[in-house]
Each structure stands twice: as structure tokens, then as C-alpha cells.
Amino acid sequence: MRPMTIIPKAVLLVLFSLIIPTSAGVYLSIKEVTDPMTIYIINGCAMLAGCLLLLFIIQKSRFHLKDIGFRKGTLGMWIIPILIIETIPFIAGLNKDLSLSSFMSLCFFMVCVGLFEEGIFRGILFQYLKQINLSTAIWGSAVLFGLGHSANLLSGKSLALTVAQIFFAFLFGFVAAEIVALTNSLQWVVLWHAVHNIVDQMTTGQTHVELQMLLLSIQCVILLVLAVVLWRRLRMKKVFNR
Questions:
Q1: Nearest CA to 120 among 191, 55, 74, 183?
Q2: Model pTM?
């Protein structure tokens, strides 16, 4: 498939990834929903609907589910730095306003987010870009994933913190793409994505911006090192030449 054919498909997939959560957000704003559990459930249902639409898109594409990455994947030593990354936010403490029912709703929501976004960015989008080459697939999916989070600039949060979060999203997407390239599976990145979002909500309370920036910076450094290590591993395995 030629790049000029792939690029429009990539743009449409990114737009699709934004439409679902935006639609849910607009609905919640119109209805003025403030209850956390209800917000998680509605967002989760929207993401679940997005997953079903994604399955339809995959069926209409030239790929099978196994091609996209819906298969078992082996676990590597990269899990250790990832576990460290997901432990760091707990330094800020727990969100005490999160009830058990809200937590269960949060888990439902974030599992759907993991399936939806990984199915798009490290799934079908990754496979389209891979037809150019693997390097383009890794860099392209990571850049588009980071840009997809640029909508956070409209959230009203600190500009520096928001930019740092976008950079983190890029690094997250880069490492996740490398893991998919090594394992040929979405299994672990879907789980990682869901766990990361759950941890983020569990530990985001009244934390000062300065502490959030510090913890996020540490996570970014670890992700950057992991990205370099995995890139070298891919080169050693000569995956780029396949």
C-alpha cells in the first residue's frame, strides 16, 4: 500500500479515536452529570461502543484480528521498569474521594479505553504504517498518539504540566509500539494502558502541580531509557529488516 493511501487512513483513525470520547464528554456536559460513578459508566459505555465500531472497521480492512495483535504475547524484562513507572504516582497518595462503586466503574471505563485506543494506535494504525516500514509504524503511531492527547491543552490545567503529559503520551506510545513489535501482541499494552489510567485516577487528588511535574518527569526519564533499550533490542533482532 502506498504512503499516500496510508496517510488518509491514519488521519481518519486518529479522528475516530477522538470522536468517541468527545461525544461522551459533550453528552455529560449537556446533562450536567457530576457523579463520578455515572461519569465513568457513561464514558465506559461510549468506549465499549467504540470498540464494537473498531471491530467492524477491522472486519472491513485487509487485516484479521491476529494481524492486529489480538493474540497471546510473551512477557519480557521490560515489565520491571513499567511496574516502577506505575508505582511512582502512589508517592502522591491516594484519591480518598474514590468510593468502591466508583472504582469498579473506573476499572470498566479504563479497560474499555485500553482496548479502544490500543486497538487503534498499536493495532490497525500500527499495521497500516508498518506497510511502509517498522520504524515508521513505531514513530508514526507514537507521534499520532501524543498529538491525540493535545486536546488536553483545552482542559484548563497548567500549561507546563499539560505539555509534559503530552510528551509522556508520546513516550508511552513509543514504548508500547516497541513492545507490540517484539511480541506481535496487544495483550500487555492493553493491560498496561488500563492500569496506567486507573492508577492516574486513583492518585490524582489534591496533589500540587509541582509534585505532579516531578513525578511525571521521573516517569518520562524511565520511559525514555526503556525506549532506547527496546529500540536497540529490535535492531539486534534485525526486526527492522524483515
A1: 55
A2: 0.93
- The backbone torsions φ and ψ at residue 77, rounded to the nearest 5 degrees and listed phi first, read -65, -15
Give pLDDT tens digits for 21-45. 999 999 999 999 999 999 999 999 9
Burial 120-137 (b: 16+ CB within 10 A, else e): bbbbbbbbbbbeeebbbb
DSSP string, 117-148: HHIIIIIIHHHHHHTT-HHHHHHHHHHHHHHH
Cα–Cα distance measured from residue 53 to residue 154, given in angstroms and rounded to the nearest whole number:
27
What is the distance between the alpha carbons of residues 109 and 157, in angstroms, rounded to a whole number?
22
Q: What is the pLDDT of residue 206?
A: 63
Domain boundaries, the chain: 3-241
Give me the mean pLDDT over the 165-175 stretch: 96
Contact between residue 134 and residue 239 where contact means Cβ atoms under 8 Å apart: yes
Instruction: Show the cell assigned to 122.
Output: 498499536
- Span between the terminal Cα atoms of the chain, in Å: 17
